[in-house]
Please model this.
Amino acid sequence: MQLHALAIFLATAANVMAATNEPCIGSGGRAGVCLSTSSCSSAGGITIDGACSADPAGIKCCSKASCANGSAGNCRWQSDCGGTSVSGLCPGPAQMKCCSSAATGFGGYSAPAIPGVGACKAVAVNGAKALVAAWPGRVRQIYCTRDCACPGTSDHCCGKAIDFMCSDGGGVPTMSGRQLAEWAMNNRGTLNLKYVIWGQRIWSPSVDAVKAWTSWRTMEDRGDVTQNHWDHVHVSFN
Model:
């Protein structure tokens, strides 16, 4: 097992932290943000327990069901809004805004370029094609290789991993990756899946039973949206 993967597998609940101002699933399955209870309350939101793993006391998942941006106004990450977004009406960071639409709004991107077989191995190229075909419009960009010697510390070094960027930009949070990640899990055999990471959680067919993303193994807080995999789904292949 590569060192990068081993480090992931050894992450335990004792050192798992969900970063403040990063996504979570709030009350009623709504888009939420990990926030102090006082900040949530002052912005008109409500909190639930247990959705921001192992955070210090006072940090909980905050969501706000309605806000003043049309009759369907609701608080969600701007990247996931199918309508207009207005600032200053929702708890959390600037990218959590009041959306005018009740529609899901995920994606809507042009088909991403998929690398050819070469440095990016056939198993990864085929996996990228399969996921993009299954979820048209949901992946904005694809990355395969990284400038590092194989085997290195990542499956990207050997061209056997794909990052499926599924928000409006790098470092921009989204909730849309959950469906892509669970699809990879459910199609593990066809994909020759090694493991999949989304939203600070990891799933591997060699370790885990098939289950909802909310029950996947949690990972340590790596410090930002991208490293915690809130703007892309990482899929490694055998």
Summary: The first helix runs from residue 3 to 9. The chain is about 15% helix and 20% strand. Helices lie at 3-9, 37-42, 122-134, 177-186, 188-191. The two ends are 11 Å apart (CA to CA).
